[in-house]
Amino acid sequence: MPSLPSLHAQIIAQRTAATKEADIVTRDVLRMLESAITYELKKAGANTANTKELRDEDIVKIIRREHRKREEAIEAAKQGHRADIVDRETKEAAVLKVLLPVGVSSDDIEKAVRELIAGKTVDVTRPGAVIGQVMKKFAGRADGAIVNQVVNQIVREHAEKATGK
Questions:
Q1: What are the backbone dihedrals phi and psi of residue 62, each rounded to the nearest 5 degrees, phi first?
Q2: Does the structure show a pLDDT above 70 at 2?
């Protein structure tokens, strides 16, 4: 059975296709992504003689980081009433979102948090430890902001039960 191409190879293939189709937004976003991947490779100590590639998990982190940058830029542009920037950043975010693996729902995150707390594998008074365990369990598929929100909500519930409110 042939193995699937790496995420980096898929990005290169999609960039080539976007170039041929004259899809400028997709082409430019994928070029930027390739540049970010190359930067991370160099930062990790790889050089041209060493054909080391990043793992797909590392590339997903880069994509997620770039997507988050676009989301933040969209919010800033909305506050500055810059519809042109909102439009451009929204298109770029859409290209990046397609490359991200399917995320975990907040219901699944909540279930995992409650299981961890019920199993007493983590201390409910230490939300950071709970967040760390949940992020490890979902291995890059969970959005850290959603995990943080769910954990803090459940920690508040436990604190209210403990104080009898």
A1: -65, -45
A2: no
Closest residue by Cα to residue 90 from 109, 75, 104, 100:
75
Q: What share of the chain is helix, strand, coil (3-state, %, to 5)?
A: 75, 0, 25
Tell me, yes or no, whether 1 lies in a domain: no
Report how many domains make up the chain.
Answer: 2
Residue 90 is encoded by which pair of tokens?
Answer: 């929204």
Question: Tell me, what's the pLDDT at 1?
Answer: 39
CATH of the domain at 38: 1.10.1510.10
Report field, pTM of the whole predicted structure over 0.85: no
pLDDT bucket at 47, cuts 50 / 70 / 90: low
Q: What tokens does 35 get?
A: 């540049």
Give CA–CA dist 16/21, Å, rounded: 9
**101 and 141 Cβ atoms separated by less than 8 Å:** yes
Q: Is residue 2 part of a domain?
A: no
